[in-house]
Specification:
alpha/beta; four-stranded antiparallel beta sheet; Aspartate Aminotransferase, domain 2; binds pyridoxal-5'-phosphate; single chain; 13 strands; Aspartate Aminotransferase, domain 1; 14 helices; 2 domains; 346 residues; 43% helix
């Protein structure tokens, strides 16, 4: 009854009982020697699912993106990226700090995409004045939005035509795939999206519900380079098969159920529809943004705390973010709706 409804992020999930069993039963070895059967099995599974030669299990999505960008780019190179993308804005500038790789950030369009004309204009000619443009990095989903498949085709084709490599930050790739498949084969859809890119990063610790871990997928050569960077970054783990087993379990059991999270985000949006002072963006996947508008913006300062007092956790100030996941159910969403509505009445 008094349990907290934690909508801050889909990273807050606890491993299920079945996942804990899979972790406990996992055969283990030393992955730095390449000996951990559970890590090897996971890497083969995710590479196979997404149609790549190889994959690398890493502790975090941040490290996965770092290994990806630094496997494509060297010192004095640059990558084209969106202002709001995780691998530009939310990773401490790691590619620049550790790799001397310069980001070239672009503004997003309203649908989350980067305009093709902006990408093209940002690609530098071969001239000693400029950093060498090497890579286009995109993110899907971006803030919960699914980038249209046709757009991804065009953007990656442009990059290829211009000699750039392509990286997808697919932390929530499976959310995009499930939404896009609309009841059809989400794995096939994930593979279709991934097929457009030279490398793809996916997170197991978000909607998939594993406690820890991400994977970078690419060619054998790229993954060999990434393995070296992972070691330098301190991310080469030992008996990490316990974590890999959780991720593997998530891939087997938690992909299709993402549709439930998406339905709950819609339920939350519908519950807030018509509420004075808020503007609710229809969610594509499991992330709902609620903007405070007009005089309601005056309530922003205490709002997250007021919700917390009612057992509902969210993030944001003028733009509140609610994320649905494995550990939220319809009753929890309804409690969140009631709590939010009561804050606006008061
Ligand atoms: C969460 C996230 C990451 C990084 O994941 P961590 O495991 O928290 O480092 C990267 N990209 C996107 C789009 C994310 O949402």
């Amino acid at each position: 009854m008094n349990t907290i409804v934690d909508l801050r992020s889909d990273t807050v999930t606890q491993p299920t009982a079945a996942m804990r069993q899979a972790m406990q039963a996992a055969p283990l070895g030393d992955d730095v020697f390449g000996d951990d059967p559970s890590v090897n099995a996971l890497q083969e599974k995710i590479a196979g699912m997404l149609g790549f030669e190889a994959a690398l299990f890493v502790p975090t999505g941040t490290q996965s993106n770092l290994c990806g960008v630094l496997s494509h780019c060297g010192r004095g190179d640059e990558y084209i990226v969106g202002q709001l993308q995780h691998c530009y804005r939310w990773e401490g500038g790691g590619a620049a700090v550790f790799g001397s790789v310069q980001p070239q950030p672009l503004e997003h369009q309203a649908d989350g995409s980067l305009a093709l004309a902006d990408i093209e204009a940002a690609i530098k000619p071969d001239d000693p004045h400029f950093a060498r443009t090497r890579l286009l990095a995109l993110e899907n989903t971006l803030g919960g939005k699914v980038l249209p498949f046709g757009y991804l085709q065009e953007a990656t084709a442009l990059a290829k035509r211009k000699g750039l490599a392509t990286h997808l930050d697919g932390a929530r790739l499976f959310n995009a795939a499930v939404a896009q498949a609309a009841g059809g084969d989400a794995r096939k859809e994930a593979r279709r999206i991934a097929s457009l890119f030279d490398s793809v990063s996916v997170c197991f610790s978000k909607g998939l519900g594993a406690p820890v871990g991400s994977a970078l997928c690419g060619t054998k050569d790229l993954i060999a380079r990434a393995r070296r960077i992972r070691k330098m970054a301190g991310g080469a783990m030992r008996q990490s098969g316990m974590l890999a087993a959780a991720a593997s379990h998530a891939l087997d059991h938690h992909v299709d159920r993402l549709a439930q999270d998406h339905a709950l985000a819609r339920r939350l949006a519908e519950g807030l529809a018509g509420l004075d002072g808020v503007q609710v963006e229809a969610p594509h996947t499991n992330i709902l943004f609620v903007d405070l508008v007009g005089p309601a913006r005056g309530k922003s300062a205490g709002l997250v705390d007021a919700l917390k007092k009612q057992g509902v956790l969210a993030t944001g100030l003028y733009r509140l973010r609610f994320v649905t996941h494995l550990d939220v159910d319809a009753a929890g969403v309804d409690r969140a709706v009631a709590a939010i509505r009561s804050c606006f009445r008061g």
